[in-house]
Amino acid sequence: xxxxxxxxxxxxxxxxxxxxxxxxxxxxxxxxxxxxxxxxxxxxxxxxxxxxxxxxxxxxxxxxxxxxxxxxxxxxxxxxxxxxxxxxxxxxxxxxxxxxxxxxxxxxxxxxxxxxxxxxxxxxxxxxxxxxxxxxxxxxxxxxxxxxxxxxxxxxxxxxxxxxxxxxxxxxxxxxxxxxxxxxxxxxxxxxxxxxxxxxxxxxxxxxxxxxxxxxxxxxxxxxxxxxxxxxxxxxxxxxxxxxxxxxxxxxxxxxxxxxxxxxxxxxxxxxxxxx
Length: 276
Known about the structure:
The protein has helices at residues 3-14, 43-51, 66-69, 77-84, 89-109, 114-122, 131-148, 155-162, 166-170, 200-208, 222-232, 245-262; strands at 24-27, 34-38, 56-59, 126-128, 176-179, 189-191, 214-217, 239-242, 266-269. It is α/β, with parallel strands linked by helices. The chain folds into 2 domains: 3-76 and 109-129 and 250-270, NIF3 (NGG1p interacting factor 3)-like (Udp-n-acetylmuramoylalanyl-d-glutamate--2,6- Diaminopimelate Ligase, Chain: A, domain 1), CATH 3.40.1390.30; 136-248, Udp-n-acetylmuramoylalanyl-d-glutamate--2,6- Diaminopimelate Ligase, Chain: A, domain 1. Strand 7 (214-217), helix 11 (222-232) and strand 8 form a beta-alpha-beta unit. Helix 1 runs parallel beside helix 7 and helix 10 runs parallel beside helix 11 (222-232). It is globular, with a radius of gyration of 19 Å.
Protein backbone atom coordinates (compact mmCIF):
# COMPACT_ATOMS: atom_id res chain seq x y z
CA UNK A 1 0.00 0.00 0.00
CA UNK A 2 1.04 3.61 -0.45
CA UNK A 3 0.22 6.50 1.87
CA UNK A 4 -2.75 7.64 -0.24
CA UNK A 5 -4.25 4.15 -0.04
CA UNK A 6 -3.74 4.08 3.73
CA UNK A 7 -5.55 7.40 4.04
CA UNK A 8 -8.35 6.04 1.84
CA UNK A 9 -8.81 3.08 4.21
CA UNK A 10 -9.14 5.48 7.14
CA UNK A 11 -11.72 7.57 5.28
CA UNK A 12 -13.69 4.46 4.33
CA UNK A 13 -13.83 3.26 7.92
CA UNK A 14 -14.93 6.73 9.08
CA UNK A 15 -17.59 7.07 6.39
CA UNK A 16 -15.85 10.13 4.95
CA UNK A 17 -15.24 11.08 1.33
CA UNK A 18 -12.60 13.80 1.74
CA UNK A 19 -9.44 14.10 3.81
CA UNK A 20 -10.32 16.32 6.81
CA UNK A 21 -8.31 19.52 7.31
CA UNK A 22 -6.47 18.10 10.36
CA UNK A 23 -5.07 15.10 8.50
CA UNK A 24 -2.64 14.70 5.62
CA UNK A 25 0.48 13.23 4.09
CA UNK A 26 3.68 15.17 4.81
CA UNK A 27 6.18 12.85 3.14
CA UNK A 28 4.60 10.17 0.92
CA UNK A 29 5.62 6.52 0.65
CA UNK A 30 4.94 4.37 -2.40
CA UNK A 31 5.29 0.91 -0.88
CA UNK A 32 4.50 0.50 2.81
CA UNK A 33 5.08 -2.94 4.25
CA UNK A 34 5.93 -1.93 7.82
CA UNK A 35 4.50 1.11 9.64
CA UNK A 36 4.83 2.61 13.12
CA UNK A 37 1.70 4.30 14.54
CA UNK A 38 1.85 6.79 17.43
CA UNK A 39 -0.14 9.66 18.90
CA UNK A 40 2.27 12.59 19.48
CA UNK A 41 5.33 12.07 17.28
CA UNK A 42 8.35 14.35 17.34
CA UNK A 43 11.75 14.36 15.66
CA UNK A 44 13.14 11.62 17.88
CA UNK A 45 10.29 9.35 16.81
CA UNK A 46 11.23 9.88 13.17
CA UNK A 47 14.74 8.69 14.01
CA UNK A 48 13.37 5.68 15.91
CA UNK A 49 11.17 4.71 12.97
CA UNK A 50 14.04 5.14 10.54
CA UNK A 51 16.56 3.25 12.67
CA UNK A 52 14.16 0.33 13.17
CA UNK A 53 13.48 0.01 9.46
CA UNK A 54 9.90 1.23 9.21
CA UNK A 55 8.60 2.42 5.85
CA UNK A 56 6.24 4.98 7.38
CA UNK A 57 5.51 6.84 10.61
CA UNK A 58 1.78 7.44 11.10
CA UNK A 59 0.92 10.01 13.73
CA UNK A 60 -2.54 10.57 15.14
CA UNK A 61 -2.40 14.26 16.00
CA UNK A 62 -1.67 16.82 13.27
CA UNK A 63 2.02 16.72 12.36
CA UNK A 64 2.38 20.14 10.75
CA UNK A 65 1.82 21.86 7.44
CA UNK A 66 -1.81 22.18 6.44
CA UNK A 67 -2.99 19.69 9.06
CA UNK A 68 -1.93 22.17 11.76
CA UNK A 69 -2.70 25.43 9.99
CA UNK A 70 -6.17 24.28 8.87
CA UNK A 71 -6.97 22.42 12.09
CA UNK A 72 -9.59 24.96 13.30
CA UNK A 73 -11.80 24.11 10.32
CA UNK A 74 -12.53 20.72 11.88
CA UNK A 75 -14.13 22.44 14.88
CA UNK A 76 -17.23 23.06 12.77
CA UNK A 77 -18.07 19.39 13.28
CA UNK A 78 -19.14 20.34 16.81
CA UNK A 79 -22.12 22.14 15.30
CA UNK A 80 -23.13 18.95 13.47
CA UNK A 81 -22.94 16.92 16.69
CA UNK A 82 -24.97 19.51 18.60
CA UNK A 83 -27.64 19.79 15.92
CA UNK A 84 -28.02 16.02 15.73
CA UNK A 85 -28.57 16.07 19.50
CA UNK A 86 -31.36 18.61 19.11
CA UNK A 87 -29.54 21.89 19.74
CA UNK A 88 -30.82 24.72 17.49
CA UNK A 89 -28.47 25.73 14.66
CA UNK A 90 -28.04 29.28 16.00
CA UNK A 91 -26.88 28.07 19.42
CA UNK A 92 -24.65 25.39 17.87
CA UNK A 93 -23.01 27.93 15.56
CA UNK A 94 -22.41 30.32 18.46
CA UNK A 95 -20.68 27.55 20.41
CA UNK A 96 -18.41 26.79 17.46
CA UNK A 97 -17.55 30.46 17.04
CA UNK A 98 -16.43 30.57 20.67
CA UNK A 99 -14.12 27.63 19.96
CA UNK A 100 -12.78 29.26 16.81
CA UNK A 101 -12.01 32.45 18.72
CA UNK A 102 -9.86 30.39 21.07
CA UNK A 103 -8.13 28.05 18.62
CA UNK A 104 -7.59 30.05 15.42
CA UNK A 105 -4.92 32.33 16.87
CA UNK A 106 -3.07 29.36 18.38
CA UNK A 107 -3.05 27.48 15.07
CA UNK A 108 -1.85 30.61 13.27
CA UNK A 109 1.12 30.92 15.63
CA UNK A 110 2.38 27.33 15.38
CA UNK A 111 5.72 26.40 13.82
CA UNK A 112 3.89 24.30 11.26
CA UNK A 113 6.89 23.00 9.28
CA UNK A 114 9.07 21.75 12.11
CA UNK A 115 8.26 18.03 11.99
CA UNK A 116 7.53 17.81 8.24
CA UNK A 117 10.88 19.47 7.45
CA UNK A 118 12.68 16.98 9.68
CA UNK A 119 10.90 14.14 7.90
CA UNK A 120 11.94 15.54 4.52
CA UNK A 121 15.57 15.88 5.61
CA UNK A 122 15.58 12.28 6.83
CA UNK A 123 13.54 11.10 3.83
CA UNK A 124 11.29 9.39 6.35
CA UNK A 125 7.66 9.06 5.19
CA UNK A 126 5.22 10.75 7.57
CA UNK A 127 1.47 11.23 7.68
CA UNK A 128 -1.22 12.29 10.16
CA UNK A 129 -4.63 10.61 10.51
CA UNK A 130 -6.58 12.54 13.12
CA UNK A 131 -10.27 13.17 12.48
CA UNK A 132 -10.98 9.87 10.68
CA UNK A 133 -9.73 7.90 13.70
CA UNK A 134 -11.63 10.13 16.11
CA UNK A 135 -14.85 9.78 14.13
CA UNK A 136 -14.43 5.99 14.16
CA UNK A 137 -13.88 6.13 17.92
CA UNK A 138 -16.90 8.37 18.46
CA UNK A 139 -19.10 5.94 16.58
CA UNK A 140 -17.83 2.98 18.59
CA UNK A 141 -18.46 4.80 21.87
CA UNK A 142 -21.87 6.04 20.75
CA UNK A 143 -22.99 2.63 19.49
CA UNK A 144 -21.69 0.90 22.63
CA UNK A 145 -23.78 3.21 24.80
CA UNK A 146 -26.88 2.90 22.62
CA UNK A 147 -26.73 -0.88 22.84
CA UNK A 148 -26.02 -0.96 26.56
CA UNK A 149 -28.04 1.75 28.31
CA UNK A 150 -31.76 2.18 28.84
CA UNK A 151 -34.08 5.07 29.69
CA UNK A 152 -33.71 4.23 33.38
CA UNK A 153 -29.89 4.10 33.36
CA UNK A 154 -27.87 6.40 35.56
CA UNK A 155 -24.43 7.83 34.85
CA UNK A 156 -22.73 5.04 36.78
CA UNK A 157 -24.44 2.47 34.57
CA UNK A 158 -23.31 4.26 31.41
CA UNK A 159 -19.71 4.23 32.64
CA UNK A 160 -19.96 0.48 33.24
CA UNK A 161 -21.17 0.05 29.66
CA UNK A 162 -18.25 2.06 28.25
CA UNK A 163 -15.84 0.00 30.34
CA UNK A 164 -16.77 -2.97 28.19
CA UNK A 165 -14.42 -1.47 25.62
CA UNK A 166 -10.94 -2.96 26.16
CA UNK A 167 -9.15 0.36 25.71
CA UNK A 168 -10.89 1.78 28.78
CA UNK A 169 -10.19 -1.35 30.81
CA UNK A 170 -6.49 -1.24 29.91
CA UNK A 171 -5.93 2.48 30.49
CA UNK A 172 -4.29 3.78 33.65
CA UNK A 173 -6.71 6.71 33.49
CA UNK A 174 -10.25 5.74 34.41
CA UNK A 175 -13.51 7.26 33.24
CA UNK A 176 -14.42 10.04 35.67
CA UNK A 177 -17.39 12.29 36.40
CA UNK A 178 -15.94 15.81 36.40
CA UNK A 179 -19.29 17.50 37.04
CA UNK A 180 -22.53 16.05 38.35
CA UNK A 181 -22.77 12.68 40.07
CA UNK A 182 -22.61 9.00 39.14
CA UNK A 183 -26.05 8.58 40.71
CA UNK A 184 -27.60 11.18 38.38
CA UNK A 185 -30.05 9.86 35.80
CA UNK A 186 -28.30 9.49 32.46
CA UNK A 187 -31.21 11.22 30.73
CA UNK A 188 -30.57 12.56 27.27
CA UNK A 189 -26.89 12.21 26.42
CA UNK A 190 -24.33 12.84 23.70
CA UNK A 191 -20.76 11.77 22.95
CA UNK A 192 -18.62 14.74 21.92
CA UNK A 193 -15.62 13.39 20.01
CA UNK A 194 -14.39 13.54 16.43
CA UNK A 195 -14.55 17.33 16.09
CA UNK A 196 -10.93 18.40 16.43
CA UNK A 197 -10.76 18.71 20.20
CA UNK A 198 -13.16 18.80 23.14
CA UNK A 199 -15.89 21.41 23.00
CA UNK A 200 -14.86 23.12 26.22
CA UNK A 201 -17.30 25.35 28.05
CA UNK A 202 -19.18 26.59 24.98
CA UNK A 203 -20.24 23.25 23.49
CA UNK A 204 -21.13 21.70 26.84
CA UNK A 205 -23.18 24.77 27.76
CA UNK A 206 -25.04 24.67 24.45
CA UNK A 207 -25.84 21.01 25.08
CA UNK A 208 -26.90 21.46 28.71
CA UNK A 209 -29.04 24.51 27.92
CA UNK A 210 -30.95 22.64 25.22
CA UNK A 211 -32.04 19.46 26.92
CA UNK A 212 -28.90 17.33 27.16
CA UNK A 213 -28.43 15.90 30.65
CA UNK A 214 -25.11 14.07 30.23
CA UNK A 215 -22.18 15.05 28.01
CA UNK A 216 -19.29 12.68 27.35
CA UNK A 217 -15.95 14.41 26.62
CA UNK A 218 -12.60 12.69 26.17
CA UNK A 219 -10.79 15.54 27.98
CA UNK A 220 -11.38 19.11 29.16
CA UNK A 221 -9.25 22.08 30.17
CA UNK A 222 -9.38 22.98 33.86
CA UNK A 223 -10.48 26.55 33.22
CA UNK A 224 -13.41 25.47 31.08
CA UNK A 225 -14.38 22.89 33.70
CA UNK A 226 -14.39 25.54 36.44
CA UNK A 227 -16.75 27.72 34.40
CA UNK A 228 -19.15 24.81 33.91
CA UNK A 229 -19.08 23.94 37.62
CA UNK A 230 -19.76 27.56 38.53
CA UNK A 231 -22.77 27.62 36.23
CA UNK A 232 -24.30 24.18 36.79
CA UNK A 233 -22.87 23.12 40.16
CA UNK A 234 -20.06 20.71 40.91
CA UNK A 235 -22.58 18.01 41.89
CA UNK A 236 -25.67 19.37 40.17
CA UNK A 237 -28.18 17.59 37.92
CA UNK A 238 -26.10 18.02 34.74
CA UNK A 239 -23.28 15.51 34.29
CA UNK A 240 -19.98 15.87 32.43
CA UNK A 241 -18.21 12.54 32.03
CA UNK A 242 -14.57 12.51 30.86
CA UNK A 243 -13.47 9.23 29.33
CA UNK A 244 -9.73 9.89 29.01
CA UNK A 245 -7.80 11.27 26.05
CA UNK A 246 -5.39 8.48 25.19
CA UNK A 247 -7.80 5.62 25.84
CA UNK A 248 -10.50 7.29 23.74
CA UNK A 249 -8.10 8.09 20.89
CA UNK A 250 -6.89 4.49 20.92
CA UNK A 251 -10.37 3.15 20.15
CA UNK A 252 -10.49 4.61 16.65
CA UNK A 253 -6.78 4.08 16.03
CA UNK A 254 -7.12 0.38 16.83
CA UNK A 255 -9.95 -0.09 14.33
CA UNK A 256 -7.71 1.36 11.60
CA UNK A 257 -4.65 -0.59 12.74
CA UNK A 258 -6.56 -3.88 12.62
CA UNK A 259 -7.81 -3.13 9.11
CA UNK A 260 -4.35 -2.21 7.83
CA UNK A 261 -2.97 -5.44 9.27
CA UNK A 262 -5.70 -7.37 7.46
CA UNK A 263 -4.58 -5.71 4.24
CA UNK A 264 -1.00 -6.82 4.67
CA UNK A 265 0.71 -3.88 6.40
CA UNK A 266 2.69 -4.84 9.50
CA UNK A 267 1.70 -2.07 11.92
CA UNK A 268 3.34 -1.61 15.30
CA UNK A 269 1.97 0.88 17.82
CA UNK A 270 3.84 3.02 20.35
CA UNK A 271 3.76 6.43 21.99
CA UNK A 272 0.60 5.85 24.01
CA UNK A 273 -1.58 3.78 21.69
CA UNK A 274 -3.35 1.12 23.77
CA UNK A 275 -3.11 -1.76 21.30
CA UNK A 276 -5.71 -4.31 22.43
